[in-house]
Amino acid sequence: MKTNQQHGTVTPTLSRIKSQSKSSQVEYLTRLRRMEFWQLHEIVMQQIEADALTGDEHEEARGVAMLIAEVYKLAPHTPVKVAGSTVPAAMVADVYAKLTAEHVRHVLDNYHRASYYIRHTKTYLRTALYNAVFELDLQVENRARVELPGLFADGGR
């Protein structure tokens, strides 16, 4: 548990929340929804380990934290557009609860590498954050299979 010194409230750290049951996670997200936006923003900054990011990444993480906090504040059934589909805010919030500094760095790296104009930055980032949770582990495994095929029983295939 972590104490918010400004408001004197006790909030569980996100790493503890990730290991809790689904009903406990829903209860936690409900508590987040009831918080003031900037208080929630600071909790998200802790969640995504913004202090682990340096320079421009840290500043960009503030904007990312605002996007995540915005989703956390939405009512569970509010429609949110992600990857061209509309899904309930609760589903997006569940996925966002798994985000770390590594995911944010991955999203920001891809954003900066884009060789095309991103017209709807907020929508792009919302989708990229959502997808990062699913992509990052698979991308690391793929890279290891290609670069170190002898480590895998199937020869890297």
Characterization of this structure:
This protein has a two-stranded antiparallel ribbon with strand order 1-2. The protein is mainly α and 157 residues long. It has one domain (2-151). 61% of the residues lie in helices and 9% in strands. The chain has helices spanning 14-18, 22-34, 37-47, 55-73, 89-96, 101-113, 121-147, and strands spanning 2-4, 9-11, 79-82, 85-88.
Tell me how many strands there are: 4
Mean pLDDT rating: 83
Structure classification: mainly alpha
Q: Could you give the order of strands across the largest sheet?
A: 1-2
Number of domains: 1
Compute the gyration radius: what is it?
17 Å
- How many helices does DSSP assign? 7
Order of helices and strands: EEHHHHEEHHH
Gross geometry: globular
> How far do the termini sit from each other?
43 Å
Major beta-sheet overview: 2 strands, antiparallel
What is this structure's SSE topology?
Layout: E1 2-4, E2 9-11, H1 14-18, H2 22-34, H3 37-47, H4 55-73, E3 79-82, E4 85-88, H5 89-96, H6 101-113, H7 121-147
Antiparallel strand pairs: 1-2, 3-4
Helix pairs in contact: 3-4, 6-7
Describe the structure in brief.
This protein is mainly alpha-helical.
Descriptors:
157 residues, two-stranded antiparallel sheet, two-stranded antiparallel ribbon, 7 helices
